[in-house]
Amino acid sequence: MQVSLASTQGVGTANEDTVHVSPTGVVVLDGLSAPKDLPMGCIHGTPWFVRQLGTCLVNLMGDNSITLREALRAAIAHVNDLHRDTCALDQEAVPASTVVMIRERDDVLDYLVLSDNVLVLDLGDEGIQTVTDKRVEEVAGEEMRAALQGPTGTPEHAARVSALVAVQRRLRNRPGGYWVAATDPAAANEAIAGTVSLAKVQQAALLTDGASRLVDSFGALDWAQLLDLLRTEGPAALIARTRDAEFADPVGKRWPRFKRSDDATAAYVRIGQPVPLTSGAQRLERGKHTGSSWGAGERSDGHTAAITPAPQDVAAALGVEPGDDVIRRTRVYRDRNGIVAHSTSWIPAEFAQAVPALVRNQRLVGGTSLDLIAEETGRHAVKRMDETAARIATDEDARLLELDLATREAILVLSARFLDSEGRPLEFGVDLGAPGRTRIETAEMAR
Predict the structure, then answer these.
(1) Per-residue confidence (pLDDT) for residue 153, from 0 to 100
(2) Which of 7, 89, 248, 359 is the most buried (most CB within 10 A)?
(3) Is 101 helix (H, G, I), strand (E, B) or coil?
(4) pTM recorded for the entire structure
(5) Residue 365 near residue 343, CB atoms below 8 Å
């Protein structure tokens, strides 16, 4: 499973979408906006709710012994426990979210959709299948038609949207209404869930309604064209094209909608593809956005840690003398095709006392090494310097990558040096990419 993703804020004050990636799955949530003139029984707000729910879901779905419905039910109950003492969870006015998630499990792909997120599955010869739950469109018809009357952005239009949300709140999570993830774990029973053979699935897209509207609201693309756009240009390009269409119709005259632009999140998944080679810097960014440095379909093992004399190149990178004590942490990233990379983090020995976990032979919990250093010392990484080089694998490279010692294949060596605000080195990371692994890097370009 190979995943690329993008998420951008719409016209609200915060992005209420969230996306989480685990070694075997993807979760995308779209928080339901709460108009400011309506009450809210939770002091934390919708962005907090979707982050907590998404984090819990991505952890629970890693247990293949439970179904995705069971994971969602347990996640809702867990988040309830986080704020039941501070918030009025028995009210209608509580944060809520749509859900779409997939999980690789042995030779099948599990999926779950609750409310109007969209899952798009390319099943090869069987065509493209979409899964979505449109029950929200079947309630409060009169109020919905009024809320879709333009022009968007006016006080009158905002009042009509508030009236719609007030009616929808009374119809959430009850028979004859529609279902979302909020405070009732039983909502998980109403989700659309299923399983398909992994051998059939070539690619998939998980979309919030802000990212699916080029197809299901605007009719500017069909689902096959949307998948082609995601495959060739990536999720950021899909969202950028959506924004172009919205800006061309800012008041909703051509395409009536509740707001000019909604939060938009898209995750594009290639099934059965080797995980691409990722630098330490990219893993750090992934961790910030998804809560995990792993790529989907990836895992790590062989975690070691020790205080060791600094080799010459490491000493130069960390600003110490060769032979000085430094922390060396190593691990191996793998997917179902074998080793992705052997990764080494070199860290100044001064952090061993402040962060004892750095010298334990186990995977770090609670964030990356840089996260833990910042938490304990207040020294944050504010600058990084990346370098990529290619070389024929040495005997030591072959040993670390579990290759035949006679191999003479080319490998990529990715290094990243992290500095704090005063220019002091915090970490020097070196990743040895296994032969044949591609490196993919995307970035949004200014227009």
Answers:
(1) 80
(2) 7
(3) strand
(4) 0.65
(5) no
